[in-house]
Recover the amino acids of this structure.
């Protein structure tokens, strides 16, 4: 078994700069990043990305891809240190570039079993450790968007961001009228175009690796990420998702979605109720009792199901940074940038898939063929159909399980990763578009439940939520 | 008939109003002093009693905007800013106040002499621009890494070059609210301030005479 990151940090030798721990390196790196400007112009970013990524992608990612299918025990223990150093350097690169690359880092961090554990843990720090814009730049931007300086619009506007993410940074303030504490998410100027440029750069750099026959698939995934990131740069859309989601829960659900204040929102500024709570890592550090883990696990599943069944909203990015574990035992759900509104066709498809899961093997086979839009020739490819059936079995296993399903069993999540990896390797990428979103949701949800080591009765929750499904809010 | 100071002031304002309108409508090249005089309801010759040239007229309008930006900058200071942030806030304020004149401001800026003849340009430019640069000098002196030493001419030369570059970019910037310019300005100023901290910069340039 691989060591934890803290064990690795302890084992690290002192480096030339005289640092004693990797934590020092991280702190230094973040301090330096705070002085770095956002590079403007594609060429500048390509240069930055190229130099850092040339060192990393070649050495690190290539190793990862080569060893992806070996068993965890066969992985070389000695490489763990390399992972950590690479991850630290990559963190610097991604924070500097901020846009797409950082977002991709967050996506990867959500799959702890896909990327090596050390890598994922360092990537996980990205959620709230990006270098901020200085207040004068932010103030100009707010004035352009809302018509006045933030300190004139709000009371107690805090010039220092309390959270920073890839697309923006979040400041605390109070509403003048009510005194209510709000979180104001402010997007970095120019971020949408930065994202598009960064993705082009990333493709340009990775293209020579080609990765044989998998390249088409990777290219498709880039396009998919770009589409999602485009959505995430539209805060008006996110505000609408928040409004819909907020209507979906009652006090009894113990799930909180922050209220939006539309008078202080634009496409690039989002003002919402401030929620206080712990993030997953902080929560886990308190060594919570199993009962509390289960309670929060149940709330997370309930939230995903309610949004999906009740509001027809697919929460496609359930990464740990989007959940708050509140002091009073409730779950706070933020960041609705990466959501998909089900179309009627999507709903028909999802309903049919669910019926197939509870039906016979023949039903499942037909549903898989439909879901992956297979050609006649592909339908005759038995290993292909079987692999996709096994994927469906993996997704539905917790749904069919009687009683609480133990997501703390690492074997379950690993099996899903292996199936997904196998499908990628064999280029089984044909799929209905909605599956891209569904897969992210399935994986993300199972990843967080796995990290939480929660036991949740998904079968009962499915029955409850499909029975009391409310009319769509939007 | 004796023209009172008040009448002179009113006429000057009329000319400036007419110039703002026509320079914006037609651009710097196409708007003539004759057009401006007609718009202001005065004879062309009278206009020259107030402003020696179209350039001087345009620079006066821009100068007033820069003066307004200076006072806005002072009012909005909050005390915790670094040098790069102060220079950013001052210049962003200037850009904001120049915003209504972006169309012709660009054309006027393009006619300004390049960096090699900067001292001449500064002497010839209007008072507001000189004040702006004096303000920049003061900020660098008191908030820069040179320990209270005023910047050298070469340092200001570098600043001026950066500023002209940013202004040219701003004039053509099609991003919403010219936000790309803000990012470029931020990046340029951080680079500029970083250059002040370079040891070679301090040793090589510290003996330069300071004319400003």
């Amino acid at each position: 078994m691989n060591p934890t990151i803290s064990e690795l940090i302890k084992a690290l030798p002192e480096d030339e700069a005289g640092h004693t721990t990797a934590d020092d390196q991280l702190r230094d790196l973040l301090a330096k990043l705070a002085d770095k400007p956002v590079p403007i112009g594609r060429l500048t970013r390509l240069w930055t990305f190229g130099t850092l990524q040339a060192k990393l992608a070649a050495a690190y990612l290539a190793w990862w891809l080569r060893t992806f299918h070996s068993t965890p025990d066969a992985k070389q223990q000695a490489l763990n240190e390399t992972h950590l150093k690479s991850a630290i350097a990559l963190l610097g690169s991604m924070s500097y570039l901020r846009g797409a690359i950082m977002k991709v880092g967050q996506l990867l961090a959500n799959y702890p079993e896909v990327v090596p554990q050390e890598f994922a843990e360092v990537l996980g720090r990205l959620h709230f450790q990006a270098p901020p814009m200085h207040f004068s730049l932010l103030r100009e931007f707010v004035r352009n968007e809302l018509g006045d300086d933030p300190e004139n619009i709000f009371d107690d506007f805090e010039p220092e961001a309390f959270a920073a993410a890839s697309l923006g940074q979040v400041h605390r303030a109070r509403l003048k009228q009510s005194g209510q504490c709000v979180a104001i998410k402010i997007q970095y100027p120019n971020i949408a175009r930065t994202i598009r440029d960064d993705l082009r750069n990333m493709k340009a750099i990775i293209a020579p690796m080609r990765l044989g026959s998998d390249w088409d698939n990777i290219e498709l995934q880039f396009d998919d990420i770009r589409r999602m990131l485009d959505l995430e740069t539209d805060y008006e859309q996110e505000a609408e998702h928040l409004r819909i989601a907020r209507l979906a829960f009652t006090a009894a659900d113990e799930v909180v979605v922050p209220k939006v204040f539309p008078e202080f929102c634009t496409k690039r500024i989002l003002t919402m109720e401030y929620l206080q709570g712990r993030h997953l890592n902080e929560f886990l550090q308190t060594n919570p009792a199993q009962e509390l883990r289960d309670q929060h696990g149940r709330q997370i599943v309930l939230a995903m199901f309610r949004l999906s069944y009740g509001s027809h909203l697919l929460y496609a990015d359930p990464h740990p940074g989007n959940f708050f574990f509140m002091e009073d035992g409730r779950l706070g759900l933020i960041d609705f940038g990466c959501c998909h509104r089900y179309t009627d066709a999507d709903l028909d498809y999802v309903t049919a898939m669910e019926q197939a899961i509870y039906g016979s093997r023949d039903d499942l086979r037909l549903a898989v063929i439909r879901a992956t839009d297979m050609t006649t020739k592909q339908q005759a490819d038995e290993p292909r159909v079987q692999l996709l059936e096994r994927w469906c079995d993996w997704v539905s296993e917790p749904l069919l399980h009687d009683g609480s399903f133990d997501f703390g069993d690492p074997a379950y999540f690993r099996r899903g990763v292996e199936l997904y990896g196998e499908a990628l390797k064999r280029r089984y990428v044909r799929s209905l578009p909605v599956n891209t979103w569904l897969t992210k949701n399935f994986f993300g949800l199972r990843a967080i439940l796995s990290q939480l080591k929660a036991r949740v009765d998904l079968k009962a929750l499915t029955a409850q939520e499909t029975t009391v499904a409310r009319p769509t809010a939007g | 008939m004796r023209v009172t100071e008040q009448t002179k002031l009113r006429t000057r304002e009329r000319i400036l109003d007419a110039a703002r309108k026509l320079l914006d409508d037609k651009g710097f090249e196409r708007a003539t002093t004759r057009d401006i005089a007609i718009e202001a309801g005065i004879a062309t010759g009278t206009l020259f009693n107030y402003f020696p040239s179209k350039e001087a007229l345009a620079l006066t309008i821009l100068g007033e905007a820069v003066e307004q930006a200076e006072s806005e900058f002072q009012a909005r200071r909050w005390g915790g800013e670094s040098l790069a942030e102060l220079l950013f806030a001052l210049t962003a304020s200037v850009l904001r106040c120049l915003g209504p004149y972006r169309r012709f401001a660009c054309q006027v800026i393009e006619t300004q002499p390049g960096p090699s003849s900067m001292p001449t340009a500064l002497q010839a430019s209007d008072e507001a621009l000189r004040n702006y640069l004096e303000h920049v000098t003061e900020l660098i002196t008191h908030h820069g890494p040179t320990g209270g030493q005023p910047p050298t001419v070469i340092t200001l030369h570098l600043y001026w070059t950066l500023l002209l570059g940013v202004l040219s970019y701003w004039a053509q910037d099609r991003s919403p609210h010219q936000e790309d310019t803000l990012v470029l300005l931020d990046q340029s100023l951080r680079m500029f301030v970083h250059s002040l901290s370079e040891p070679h910069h301090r040793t090589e340039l510290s003996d330069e005479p300071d004319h400003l």
Observations:
- The two ends of chain B are 43 Å apart (CA to CA).
- The CA atoms of residues 152 and 209 of chain B lie 7 Å apart.
- Chain B has a mean pLDDT of 80.
